[in-house]
């Protein structure tokens, strides 16, 4: 039996919607989460599509996510949106403010959306990919519970604190999307390696004693390392200030786990939306030529290189069998 299940987009969407609703999500919450999950499955890292949806489904059922929230959004400045997700998913609050955020960016050249009190954001590239689809440059930053040490042997003080950047490359082309953690790897990669019994590269994590480890299971009991040592830790701190600091959300040291307990992580998310120059500047086309040029030199351009676009209609989504079975079980509950 294959370790993967392949099904088409419509089947994946239907299953995901049924699972979200069965787990206690409202129609609006389910719609936002499924859209983000499908986007990640199509264009994001494989571990952040359907595998991460299982975390959401478990969290709906165990109380870490409010399945029927009433997000609010204030506008203290003309181009600044301050939202409260009401312990719901981050994607719903973003979706509700999206049209106004895009309009503000087009009017003022720049707009900021910051949100607190949500579950973890899922694939961070999703938010800047949405903006790029509107021809807007985006930067996003978020945090979660502490699982990264600033230096080996020290306590966990930061989350993986990812940041994402998106730049539109024009009609008929996928946007440039950089989505990476401040840690040496994303936490979900450690989880996946532990589940599959795989060793992890040296420099990714430390065990419970603070020593470097290649054992993914021991890494889960220890902590992740920042990429690039102190410089990576500085990036994690910058992301923490942009997300928790600007939104007023909890610091990673004070954030509950997103995988256990009944408390919401209540994390922060900040997104900066920028117009790519003035109308007629041609900066988007210029950026596209540069990414083409880089690829001709063998450079991997994230979000673009190695991704078929448009996606062939006959190509199915591949989901790990264990993930598929877990979602099917919840959908049928």
Descriptive account of the structure:
It is built from ten helices and 14 strands. The strands form four sheets. It has a seven-stranded mixed sheet with strand order 2-3-4-13-5-8-9, sandwiched between helices. Helix 1 crosses helix 2. The radius of gyration is 19 Å and the shape is globular.
Topology:
Layout: E1 4-7, H1 9-23, H2 27-43, H3 50-62, E2 72-77, E3 80-84, H4 90-108, E4 110-118, H5 125-132, E5 137-142, E6 148-149, E7 156-158, E8 163-167, E9 176-180, H6 187-196, E10 205-206, E11 212-213, H7 216-220, E12 223-224, H8 230-247, E13 267-274, H9 283-296, E14 317-320, H10 321-331
Parallel strand pairs: 3-4
Antiparallel strand pairs: 1-14, 2-3, 4-13, 5-8, 5-13, 6-7, 8-9, 10-11, 10-12
Helix pairs in contact: 1-2, 1-3, 1-10, 3-10
């Amino acid at each position: 039996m294959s370790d993967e299940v392949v099904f088409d987009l419509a089947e994946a969407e239907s299953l995901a919607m049924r699972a979200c609703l069965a787990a206690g999500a409202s129609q609006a919450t389910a719609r936002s989460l499924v859209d983000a999950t499908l986007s990640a499955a199509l264009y994001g890292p494989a571990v952040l599509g359907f595998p991460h949806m299982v975390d959401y489904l478990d969290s709906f059922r165990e109380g870490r996510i409010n399945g029927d929230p009433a997000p609010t959004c204030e506008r203290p400045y003309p181009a600044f949106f301050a939202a409260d997700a009401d312990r719901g998913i981050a994607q719903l609050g973003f979706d509700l403010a999206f049209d106004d955020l895009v309009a503000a960016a087009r009017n003022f050249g720049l707009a900021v959306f910051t949100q607190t009190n949500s579950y973890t954001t899922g694939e961070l590239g999703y938010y800047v990919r949405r903006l790029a689809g509107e021809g807007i440059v985006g930067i996003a930053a978020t945090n979660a519970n502490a699982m990264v040490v600033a230096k080996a042997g020290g306590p966990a003080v930061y989350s993986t604190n990812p940041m994402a950047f998106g730049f539109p490359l024009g009609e008929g082309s996928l946007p440039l999307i950089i989505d990476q953690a401040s840690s040496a790897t994303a936490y979900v990669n450690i989880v996946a390696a532990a589940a599959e019994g795989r060793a992890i590269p040296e420099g990714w994590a430390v065990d419970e004693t603070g020593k470097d480890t290649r054992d993914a299971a021991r890494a889960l009991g220890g902590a992740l390392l920042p990429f690039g040592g102190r410089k990576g830790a500085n990036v994690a701190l910058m992301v923490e200030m942009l997300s928790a600091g600007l939104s007023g959300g909890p610091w990673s040291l004070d954030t509950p786990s997103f995988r256990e307990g009944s408390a919401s992580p209540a994390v922060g998310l900040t997104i900066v939306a920028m117009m790519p120059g003035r109308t007629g500047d041609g900066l988007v086309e210029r950026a596209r030529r540069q990414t083409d040029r880089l690829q001709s030199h063998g450079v991997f351009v994230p979000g673009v290189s190695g991704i078929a676009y448009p996606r062939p209609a006959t190509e199915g989504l591949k989901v790990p069998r264990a993930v598929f079975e877990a979602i099917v079980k919840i959908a049928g509950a």
